[in-house]
Amino acid sequence: MASEASGHVRGRLPCRGRVIAEATGTEDGCPTTGAASGTAIAVAAVIAGLDPARIEMLPDAGGRPHEVPLLKGHSVNFGESVRQMIALGGGRAREVVSVNKVSGAHLGASVTERTAALLFVQSHHTVHKGQIPLAEVVAQLALPRGAPRDRPGPGSPDAGLTLRAAARAPAGRSLKPAAGLGRQVS
Dihedral of the CA atoms 5, 8, 9, 15 (nearest 10)? Predict the structure, then answer.
């Protein structure tokens, strides 16, 4: 009986993924049980792409870019450690500067050829004082690197910004985003 229910749910995942993608303006969606699993899957997707061999190697990134700059004030535990979720997806968290002060220049300098994604955690658990707002992260890092800017997303702090521009891989509970700026992986 349980296996029948599992098959029924599994058959609906692609449909649910399309609904999530349409709602967020992203290429695809993956229903998860929450922000923790969504973060791990998003990091894995950015690192491994669609290549089955790379996927099966994870969490070993196999020499591919795997660093994930993370504002130090966003390195929190919301029941699960954000750093651990990055590691489960094959990434290595690189905390940026200090807990209560970070600038766009600090964040920009943390992006190197080893960078796979930038994770921005939007939560009441994070430190807000002295941090860069999502709007600035998008304007300074995502848009200059070619992220699309054309569709308002749920919970967007600025109607001119979009969840699609802010995140190629939004993850969360009820689209409460932990936004990641990911590289296109071939």
Answer: -170
Q: How far apart are CA 76 and CA 161, in angstroms?
A: 25
pTM for the structure as a whole: 0.73
Q: How far is CA 152 from CA 15, 42, 95, 180, in A?
A: 22, 21, 29, 17
110 CB contacts (<8 Å, ≥6 apart)? 69, 94, 96
Q: What is the mean pLDDT of residues 48-53?
A: 89
pLDDT score at 167: 47
Question: How far are the Cα atoms of 13, 17, 139, 158 from residue 95, in angstroms, in the given order?
Answer: 34, 31, 20, 26
Element (H, E) at 12: helix 2-24
Question: Which has the higher per-residue pLDDT, 54 or 32?
Answer: 54
Does the pLDDT of residue 39 top 70, yes or no?
A: yes
Find all residues with CB under 8 Å of 19, minimum gap 6, and list them: 29
Distance CA 22, CA 14 (A): 12
The pLDDT assigned to 46 comes to 86
